[in-house]
Write a structure and sequence with these properties.
This protein is α/β, with parallel strands linked by helices. The protein is built from 11 helices and 15 strands. The radius of gyration is 23 Å and the shape is elongated. About 2% of the residues have low confidence.
């Protein structure tokens, strides 16, 4: 198991020439799944081309002035830009998964997928039994990612499972390069199956629907569907030593130094102007900013704790997923 650098709800697009069938499918799918339906393929294509925007990857390639040859390049990653995706209101409307019928009058489902070449969404062909050979061929040609027979007894259950799996795959593909780069440095937990499993379990237990890699402190920032934030601070033995040294150099109370040295606390110094590290302004109030660590033994030993995030720590109010869903429902009533 791996962890993408970010993940948030996205939109599943369903295209079928039968409007009644579309409404029936949407009614039976998870109501928390953001979806958009089209029974006209031309309208659907126009919408995709206008709406299929991905957040820019926070990658920046700079020329090394000391070695100014074309094959000497440095890659600079601004981790803060990952978190800033959470301020983009359009993030929930990005189409990550297409579910498309095969037999349609204007163009068939495979032709529709071909027309979406270059648009980064996962594609599921939802076919009749007679279309399965065509679906296999489309899968082998890389035009679709999955196919499901409409005639299967568990077709809708499978469809919901595959939509969820394809949404996860969308973000893995989206951040694959970043994961490889960052896991070599302070974010090794991205490639640690044990820690990735812990993060997914925390997300499930607390009803968290978004996560973003965070710096200052190192860890993962979560939001639930109401936009309420949680911070999972993730430390290693090395980073715990850094906390100790920073606290010692800033004349921290001996009780805090002892707790850090013995790894009895994970700190999240979230006072205004802080970057997650100790400062003299904390003083004897350090207990307010620390929690007992949970320990995960994976590729290395990880110490983690989950914290509420004070309002001042976020630059602006977050556009919540619930707010987006309500806006979509109101828009559909007006149509």
């Amino acid at each position: 198991m791996k962890l993408p650098v970010l993940s948030h709800p996205t939109t599943t697009v369903l295209v079928d020439d039968s409007d009644s069938f579309l409404q029936s499918v949407v009614f039976q799918l998870d109501p928390g799944l953001a979806s958009k339906t089209f029974h006209d393929t031309t309208e659907a294509l126009n919408w995709f081309r206008a709406s299929a925007r991905r957040s820019e990857l926070p990658l920046e390639v700079n020329l090394d002035v000391l070695n100014p040859t074309s094959d000497q390049r440095n890659v600079a990653v601004d981790v803060r830009r990952i978190f800033h995706v959470s301020s983009q209101r359009q993030r929930f409307s990005i189409p990550s998964v297409l579910v498309v019928d095969y037999s349609m009058p204007q163009m068939n489902g495979v032709q529709f997928c071909e027309a979406l070449h270059g648009i980064p969404c996962k594609k599921i062909l939802f076919t009749g039994a007679a279309d399965e050979k065509i679906a296999v061929d489309a899968f082998n040609r890389g035009l679709i990612d999955r196919y499901i027979s409409k005639s299967a007894e568990d077709a809708l259950d499978r469809l919901e499972q595959e939509i969820e799996a394809m949404q996860r795959a969308f973000f893995f593909k989206h951040s694959e390069t970043l994961c490889e780069l960052l896991s070599l440095h302070d974010y090794g937990f991205l490639r640690c199956p044990a820690m990735a499993a812990v993060i997914q379990q925390v997300r499930k237990e607390h009803g968290l629907v978004e996560h973003y890699l965070f710096h200052g402190p190192t860890g993962v920032l979560f939001f639930d569907s109401y936009g309420r934030a949680k911070m999972m601070v993730i430390e290693t033995a090395k980073s715990m030593c850094s906390h100790y040294e920073m606290a010692r150099d800033n004349d921290a109370p001996s009780s805090l130094l002892e707790a850090l040295r013995e790894r009895r606390v994970v700190p999240f110094f979230s006072q205004p102007g802080a970057d997650g590290m100790y400062s003299a302004a904390v003083g004897d109030q350090w207990h307010r900013y620390c929690a007992a660590p949970q320990v995960c033994e994976g590729r290395e030993t990880w110490y983690w704790a989950l914290f509420d995030v004070p309002d001042h720590y976020l630059a602006s109010p977050v556009y919540a997923f619930k707010e987006f869903l309500e806006g979509e429902r109101q828009a559909s009533r007006r149509v």
